[in-house]
Known about the structure:
By secondary structure, this protein is mainly alpha-helical. It has one domain (about 5-220): MetI-like (MetI-like fold), CATH 1.10.3720. The chain contains 12 helices and no strands. It has helices at about 5-35, 40-50, 55-65, 70-80, 90-100, 100-110, 115-125, 130-140, 140-160, 160-165, 175-185, 190-220.
Amino acid sequence: MSIFGPLWLSVQLAFATTVIxxxxxxPVAWWLSQxxxxxxxxxxxxxxxxxxxxxxxxxxxxxxxxxxxxxxGSWWVQLTGSALTFSFTGLVIASCIYSLPFxxxxxxxxxxxxxxxYLERAWTLGASRxxxxxxxxxxxxxxxFVSGIVLSFAHTLGEFGVVxxxxxxxxxxxxxxxxxxxxxxxxxxxxxxxxxxxxxVGFAFAVLATMFVINRRWSxx
Length: 221
């Protein structure tokens, strides 16, 4: 089994998941950083649940939800004629839910640390709330965006339980690198398992080290 197929599929999955999470997670993070509603802790708990839930539990319920008879899966079958489960599209949806807190929380923290008077000055100068968000809040929160992007990508690249439950092990479709490692271990091919595992270890270290260096330089500024 070649390493490049599962690795490329994992990179595609991580990239698609990260892009979607930035687009979806940014307004969620902004709302959580600004709202004073009493329901905020409930929403925060829902967003953070994938951190504490066992991946197999989350994967099981996603399998039911995205399956041909599930609330979302049945609608998808009627629309496209194909099932979400055991497909790359299903993996993207499951990965977005599984990695959601890793995108939302760093961005939310960056928004919450933003001095309020910066936005207030922009409003007094005639900027709309949307203009102030994109011209003031986002540029000053880039550190949180970098952390959210890096953590989402790395977390998706290494996930196992959720992708196995929702996507199975279909070569070229859902067999990501973590599943390929599991296959090698099951077949006692420890050499190939070592090669793939060391690749992920090296990548994870490089990604996290880069993020810490960037954050340190931002702090020094």
